[in-house]
Amino acid sequence: MECSISRTNLNCISLADPDTQKSVALLKQACLDSGFFYVVDHGISQELMDAVFAQSKKFFDLSTDEKMKLLRDEKNRGYTPMLDEILDPENQVNGDYKEGYYIGVEVAEDDPQANRPFYGPNQWPSDEVLPRWRKVMEQYHSEALRVAKLVARIIALALNLEEDFFDKPEMLGEPIATLRLLHYEDQVSNPAKGVYGAGAHSDYGLITLLATDDVVGLQICKDRNAQPQVWEYVAPVKGGFIVNLGDMLERWSNCIFRSTLHRVVLDGRERYSIAFFVEPSHDCIVECLPTCKSESNPPKFPPITCSAYLSQRYKDTHADLTAYSSNKA
């Protein structure tokens, strides 16, 4: 698959390329430069990609009352209404002009694992309301996790680690992997007035796989400290993923790899995207990797568990659930 449609200078990595060293070199350059790159030839069929977008649209087309029956719970599973999330409180006058739906790793309610913050049963629309919806989402979640693990293997090599470094049970063997469906309103963003589809932020975890429709909206800022900040559009890639690194990987790599500021600026058209956030297991200790520290470059961050880190980040950006207590059916 060609990435010639790209209007940015992001590297494009084919998972079907037998030249592993080429892929490692392309990824390493991208992680040092912008923390964003394209992944194509990942093995997920276009039929499944199309089905996920179609089923996502069907959900967001439901009435507000119907969607609020599946309001996000304390495990971050379910529906997030328009303006629920505020990612850049210093610059936004309202929350993000998007609504979303979280789907995590399915864990039965009576499983001891369900007592942990990011594990538990998902919330699902009934088959009467949306037939086949759950089946499509579960299939896509499984396939996206497979792709994420392949990307993580290339990242490990780029960090001079063993290829299977992230495959361990305490890492991606039992991951916190979250699929998030996103729908942006058909309005025009106005950064000068603090109005955004999604405010400027960096992602929390290890990596994010983003599939989008053909409506351009994603912007990245390669240097968050520049004045003024320079924002560049990232072009969609049909059937491929836009992949970016999260803050957890930047922390792990001692800031060698980049977790880049990004936002969504709308042009008046509706926009749909499918994000897949991948983090290690709850108990994974995120601390400076052995290949990323030296006497002249000591660790910049103290160790922290993945669960503690993510819990705080979600709390910081989402509305308190008690705000919806009178609305949930």
Automatic annotation (TrEMBL):
* Keyword entries, A-Z: Iron, Metal-binding, Oxidoreductase
Pfam families recorded:
2OG-FeII_Oxy (PF03171), DIOX_N (PF14226)
Task: Please state every residue range assigned to the domain named Fe2OG dioxygenase.
Answer: 175-280
Q: Does the keyword Iron apply?
A: yes
Q: Which Gene3D superfamilies match?
A: B-lactam Antibiotic, Isopenicillin N Synthase, Chain
Q: InterPro entries under this entry?
A: DIOX_N, IPNS-like_FE2OG_OXY, IPNS-like_sf, Oxoglu/Fe-dep_dioxygenase_dom
Q: Which domain of life is it from?
A: Eukaryota
Q: Which GO terms describe its molecular function?
A: dioxygenase activity; metal ion binding
Identify its protein family: Belongs to the iron/ascorbate-dependent oxidoreductase family.
What is the protein name stated in its UniProt record? Fe2OG dioxygenase domain-containing protein
Organism of origin:
Oryza brachyantha
- Tell me the gene name: LOC102722253
